[in-house]
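dude i think i finally got it to work??
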Amino acid sequence: MTEKYIQKSAHTRIQVLVISLCSMINTLDGFDVMAIAFTAPQIASEWNLSPEVLGLVFSAGFFGMALGAIFLAPLSDHFGRRRVVISCMALVIVSMLLTATANSTTTLIPYRFLTGLAIGTMLPSLTSMASEYSSDSNKNLNISIVQSTYAVGATLGGFITGLLIVDYGWRFIFVGGALLNLITFVFILFLLPESLEFLMNKRPENGLSKANKIIKKLGGKVLPDWPALSENAKKPTLGLEGLMSGEMCKWTLLLWLTSFTSMFGVYFLMSWIPKIIFDAGFPIEKAIWVGVCINAGGLLGILWLGYQSDKKGLRPMIVSFLAIAGLLMMIFGSLDAGIVVLMGSAAALGFFSQGGFIGLYSTAARLYETQIRATGIGWCIGIGRFGAIIGPSIGGVFIGLQWQQSTYFIVLAIPFLIGACAMFFLKAPQLEPGAGN
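look at this
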């Protein structure tokens, strides 16, 4: 319904604005989520926390993200993308400030849960907005750009925290994060429009005037009234029922399986690689650099898949990325090499594993119609988050059992291969080139 207003090639100013604002928010989300990891050593030292208790603090944020993505993100399909983003940003500001006041884990854990809940709820709306303000020819790239900024925020946040935490303490980091979110909140409040596609489909009260303002900025003719709905148009099935209706059920289950298995593998690698490299006898700074290389390679992989998949097709690229990630993981686990080779291998591993995983955001955005898009993206992310929680734990069990490194890397590479197979069979027509969803 909005195709004629979205430019086929070059972006209009409002499209660039929406992609830029969504990227800005997601950059801060990367910092907000990882801030606890950056400050954990100082918090643990100050409060004398055991690794087990600190693990609960970490998990609280991820559980919040999973629950927000599954149960609250669907609100975006009912009340609008903009409202959900604004509400969640307000909650992030409050929870970050509350975190700075925490004096024990009994307060810190619920505050981190609230931050995760807000971010998990907001992320599907950002992905939906990026999708709905993009033409079909650059939809995958724009979604990848927005999602890649999460890694940028995490990286910059770590660098800034390293510079400031010794002089100002860990509480300052959360206060600073809240202030950055507050500044961005003001921009969002005045500049972020509602999704035109949402307005055209939901048709809320006073929605026509809002839609016409957006249509003007897109260079289209204003509407005297809402376009007539086709008499044959079927009322869409909303919510989880919509994800599970008819043939969509098969595609949804395959997408969930791919999301769970790929996040399982990605978060095992991100969590354990620096520790594994350190235990192999390398200095801590070199072990950290190997971890940085995974994220740096991941950033490039996300952008490359987004750019190339608009030309070569999303599904075959994700299949190849996840399959290659599984094979590279098996090779990495058996390497007995110097730090330069390990860094290069880690970058390649991050390129394919994270690039393939983030491609699932574009997959969900294309697979589901506007009325259930945020719900579909939210469930995809939420199911994946449980893989992110379980993957590092299972890896820790194998390491604790003193399995050979090459053996448990082979076992933990299997989820990537399962994900590649699931994606291979996800032959939904919406994902075919030129489908235009």
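The mean pLDDT is 90.
im so relieved honestly
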